[in-house]
Automatic annotation (TrEMBL):
Quaternary structure, from the entry: Part of the 50S ribosomal subunit.
GO term, biological process aspect, one: translation
GO MF assignments: structural constituent of ribosome
Keywords: Ribonucleoprotein, Ribosomal protein
InterPro entries: Ribosomal_bL28/bL31-like_sf (IPR034704), Ribosomal_bL31 (IPR002150), Ribosomal_bL31_B (IPR027493), Ribosomal_bL31_sf (IPR042105)
Lineage summary: Bacteria, Pseudomonadati, Pseudomonadota, Gammaproteobacteria, Alteromonadales
Coiled-coil zones: none
Any Pfam family hit: Ribosomal_L31
UniProt GO cellular component terms: ribonucleoprotein complex; ribosome
Gene, per the UniProt record: rpmE2
Keyword Ribonucleoprotein: yes
Protein name as catalogued: Large ribosomal subunit protein bL31B
Gene3D superfamilies assigned: Ribosomal protein L31 (4.10.830.30)
Record carries keyword Transcription regulation: no
Similarity section: Belongs to the bacterial ribosomal protein bL31 family. Type B subfamily.
Length: 84
C-alpha cells in the first residue's frame, strides 16, 4: 500500500440539523470545524438529512403543501383533452 495517498480515517461528529441529533461515525470527510462532544474534541460536519430523519427509513412521510409540477400541468390543461 502506498503511503501518503490515502485520506485520514477518524471519528467525526455529524449533526442532523432537521431533527437536532448528533452521532459519531468513522469517516474520511475533510472539515476544519471541530466540536466538543461528550468530553472529546471531534471534527464536526452538519447535514440536512440522515437515516434518522429521512422518510424512507422512518416510515413517516412529510405533508407536501403544494401540488407537484405534473399535477399542476394536468390541472391546467385538463380542458384541452384529446379529440380523436
Amino acid at each position: 500500500m502506498k503511503s501518503g495517498i490515502h485520506p485520514e480515517y477518524r471519528q467525526v461528529v455529524f449533526h442532523d440539523t432537521s431533527i437536532d441529533q448528533y452521532f459519531v461515525v468513522g469517516s474520511t470527510v475533510a472539515t476544519d470545524r471541530t466540536i466538543d462532544y461528550q468530553g472529546q474534541l471531534y471534527p464536526y460536519v452538519t447535514i440536512d438529512v440522515s437515516s434518522s430523519s429521512h422518510p424512507f427509513y422512518t416510515g413517516k412521510q412529510r405533508v407536501v403543501e403544494s401540488e407537484g409540477q405534473i399535477a399542476k400541468f394536468k390541472k391546467r390543461f385538463k380542458s384541452l383533452g384529446r379529440k380523436s
